[in-house]
Specification:
Layout: H1 6-16, H2 18-23, H3 27-48, H4 63-85, H5 90-102, H6 107-114, H7 121-149, E1 155-157, E2 172-174, E3 178-180, E4 186-188, H8 195-209, H9 215-231, H10 235-251, H11 257-272, H12 274-291, H13 293-313, H14 340-371, H15 375-390, H16 400-415, H17 420-425
Antiparallel strand pairs: 1-2, 3-4
Helix pairs in contact: 1-7, 3-6, 4-5, 4-6, 4-14, 6-16, 7-9, 8-9, 8-10, 8-15, 10-15, 12-13, 13-14, 14-15, 15-16
């Protein structure tokens, strides 16, 4: 597997060099640069194409990507108005637009846009397998360093932090990829800024490597990604993988008569045993929160404070930016973090929240329709669901710089030919005209 053009070369070597970039503390700088450069490259190709351009080289931007671009622009408008409402000044507007929009939110639109370039998904699958192998080796080294040498948190801050943007977590390098949380649990974070983020990318990479055609690489990739998920000790990470795989299977087979019959039977039996099932769900919920009760309490308090202040102070356009430092009782966690939707309401108000909701709804419907007949769209739907699940526990915009390979696959899935005609023909004797 070798890259065949400039976009593939950049994507391939960036993924393979992820750990090198991480140890420079440069991911938060290089990933946005990659996204913006490839976007510039795409626009040049798009502008220069003519009627003689061959179909395989012709660039057509999918409707879903346009929806994301518009939604991200609306979020920028909300950011500006939020700053004006609280008299934060022109300089702060410029800083926030650069650090909290250009390097975060825009990547959710730019990398799917990059997916419209001639980039083979198979190249990303193989590169993901290699990265998972590297992660497996480094996880082993980190485990030995922790258990034998007690080198739990040997870290440094990259000089690139001087460029600004984001907290020091984005520039902090843990040499052995491990960290101890406030409950004294040793957790791996490898090339991610914190352990739950590693669980998120572990889920994403599992979905990517699962498409690798060569069994050896697929197995290595799956083992490496599962190690990322489990060693992050993230509850949502462990739940989201089977949930996303199960949901995609159901959503792409729900018109099968046997699936409908089974679903009806399960619903009937579930109705009979509803009280027992509700008790079981409640017990599971309690155990889920007790597993890391400290984290659950902090997240609940942050959510409660974000909603309360959003509603009372800035319901339409938001506050413009997160509080730089939260209360001591919450470990100084900034209000507006640990939850994409509550964070959006706090920082960009109802306008920003609706913009993201519309983009995600469009993506879900688009991928759901295409996934009925298209394998890449099915992978894209799986990745989308994982990101959606994590939007209730993380700020996905701030993690776009490590999620970008999955975002490129989403862009490739968006541009796949709509399978509606083929799908409809399987249920009708009439062909699409």
């Amino acid at each position: 597997m070798k890259p065949q053009n400039l976009p593939e070369t950049l994507v391939w070597y960036y993924i393979l060099g992820t750990y090198g970039i991480y140890y420079l503390g440069a991911q938060y700088v290089f990933a946005p640069l990659l996204g913006w450069f490839l976007t510039y490259y795409l626009l040049i190709q798009w502008w220069n194409q003519t009627e003689k351009t061959t179909p395989e080289k012709k660039i057509t931007i999918s409707p879903a990507v346009w929806v994301w671009i518009i939604s991200i622009l609306i979020i920028e408008i909300a950011l500006i108005i939020g700053h004006l409402d609280f008299n934060l000044g022109t300089l702060q507007i410029a800083k926030s637009s650069f650090n909290w929009w250009l390097r975060t939110w825009t990547l959710l639109a730019l990398f799917p846009l990059v997916g419209n370039l001639n980039i083979r998904p198979e190249l990303i699958y193989r590169a993901a397998c290699v990265l998972c192998l590297q992660s497996l080796i480094l996880a082993g080294i980190g485990g030995l360093a922790i258990s034998i040498l007690n080198l739990d948190e040997l870290s440094y801050i990259s000089p690139l932090e001087a460029l600004g943007g984001g907290s020091e977590y984005y520039y902090k390098v843990n040499i052995f990829g491990s960290v101890s949380d406030y409950e004294n649990n040793t957790r791996l974070q490898l090339f991610a800024p914190w352990p739950p983020a590693l669980g998120l990318v572990g889920n994403m990479y599992f979905l990517l490597v699962n498409q690798e055609p060569e069994k050896k690489w697929r197995l290595i990739g799956m083992i490496g990604s599962i190690v990322m998920i489990v060693s992050s000790l993230s509850r949502l990470s462990i739940l989201s993988l089977p949930l996303s795989l199960g949901l995609v299977w159901f959503l792409t087979n729900f018109l099968n008569p046997w699936i409908q019959f089974t679903s009806g039977l399960v619903s009937f039996i579930g109705g009979i045993f509803a009280p027992n099932l509700l008790n079981l769900i409640e017990t599971f919920k309690e155990n889920f929160y007790k597993f890391r009760s400290g984290s659950s309490k902090v997240r609940a308090a942050l959510a409660r404070m974000a909603i309360e202040r959003w509603w009372k102070e800035a319901p339409i356009w938001g506050h413009g930016l997160n509080d730089p430092r939260g209360p001591a009782s919450l470990g100084y966690m900034p209000i507006g973090t640990h939850h994409t939707w509550f964070g959006l309401l706090f920082t960009h108000g109802l306008v920003g929240c609706m913009a993201l909701a519309i983009a995600m709804s469009w993506s879900f419907i688009d991928l759901l329709i295409k996934a009925q007949t298209n394998q890449i769209a099915k992978v894209g739907l799986s990745i989308f669901l994982v990101i959606f699940f994590f939007s209730f526990a993380e700020n996905i915009d701030s993690l776009a710089y490590i999620l970008w390979p999955g975002l490129v696959i989403l862009g490739i899935a968006y541009k796949e030919n709509l399978g509606v005609c083929k799908y409809a023909e399987s249920f009708s004797d009439h062909s699409c005209l």
